[in-house]
Amino acid sequence: MKNLDKKELKQAAGVLRAITHPLRMTIMKFIADNQPVNVTKIYKQLKLEQSVTSSHLSILRDAGFLISKRDGKKIFYSIDSKKIDSVLKSIGKNLGLK
Q1: Distances (CA, A) of 23 to 64, 87, 95
Q2: How far is CA 81 from CA 3, 44, 86, 97, in A?
Q3: Which residues contact 26 (CB under 8 A, 6 or more apart)?
């Protein structure tokens, strides 16, 4: 196996941990299907508590998977597909895939 870029791989692993939680995966799917979407719509449609939704959105945002834009008092979320592509490429590169 080729030399692993440990820093890059560790970062990718941390990012993947952010989305492997079942509820975060559900939230990501909902955002992808409805983007841009605000927090209120997310928690109402998924029947979640606002605080739970905000907590999971924060984890996803910190991992770089979400793009947030403010419009007045509302924050709208969309998926950062470039980040997802980057993580997948990093994993593939470290596994010797093209």
Answers
A1: 17, 20, 28
A2: 27, 25, 9, 20
A3: 46
Is residue 83 within 8 A of residue 50, CB to CB? The reply is no
The CATH number of 6-93 is 1.10.10.10
Task: Grade residue 85 by pLDDT with cuts at 50, 70 and 90.
Answer: confident
Q: Are 18 and 61 in contact (CB under 8 A)?
A: no
Burial class (CB in 10 A: 0-12, 13-18, 19+), 3: exposed
- Return the domain boundaries, the chain: 6-93
Residue 1 has pLDDT above 60, yes or no: no
| Strand ranges across the sheet with 37-38 | 37-38, 74-79, 66-71
